[in-house]
């Protein structure tokens, strides 16, 4: 009786072991060179060859980072930059004044709302423009504003923003305010203003809350950052609460959501009252 050779294709154990090893190597190569690169890469791979090149470290052609393809996961489609708004001329302001006639019911004839809508007179033009764009694109939701901006094109929104930035900020006597002959918060001199809360001037570093004044102070000029002084307290509280609960999310890089996430309801009311009184 002849002894069967160990390393022989006639030995079914040897053949099976080799076949299993080859299959395991092919499976490992497919996972390491094809599946993992396609699953983990931050760029789109055209095919299997691109995946293999990526796994082996072959340099890919440079492509600048782009915004996500899905509109739904962006906070805004407005590119905010210092030069996003050109200097407004008289024609732009005039067109804005005509367009603003449909806004008077909520925002007042001169941009100062007698209700609880935001005052737009004297507002930073880039801030107004960004919010109009966000209403139109749906990044900021409002049952009132979205139908109003549906037919506005980009020039209309720029002209509206220029017009409201041109208007002076006057005091408006709303229901419940003092009569025109009485003293009012809008008539107070700067020396009579209440001291700024700590959250405004310093924030709360131990709670990762930035100072409001870092962006919203009068002397700070950041693109598309609105002025909060004198806005209705009810409106400010509603917006801070919306950012706090992430119901409003058109803040680029989640700046306002991060700033308000750890605020208490009492702190939100305090901040709204402070800015409304200045």
The CATH C-level name of the largest domain is Mainly Alpha
In the CATH scheme, what's the topology name of the largest domain? Answer: Cytochrome Bc1 Complex, Chain D, domain 2
What portion of residues is helical?
40-55%
Structural class assignment: mainly alpha
SSE succession: HHHHHHHHHHHH
pLDDT averaged residue by residue: 84
Number of domains: 3
How can the largest sheet be summarized?
none
Label the CATH architecture of the largest domain: Orthogonal Bundle
Q: N- to C-terminal separation?
A: 107 Å
Any idea what the CATH superfamily of the largest domain is called?
A: Cytochrome c-like domain
Characterise this structure.
By secondary structure, the protein is mainly alpha-helical. The chain has three domains: 44 residues; 83 residues, Cytochrome c-like domain (Cytochrome Bc1 Complex, Chain D, domain 2), CATH 1.10.760.10; 84 residues, Cytochrome Bc1 Complex, Chain D, domain 2 (Orthogonal Bundle), CATH 1.10.760.10. It is 43% helix and 0% strand. It contains twelve helices and no strands. The longest helix is centred in the first third of the chain and has 29 residues. The protein is elongated. About 7% of the residues have low confidence.
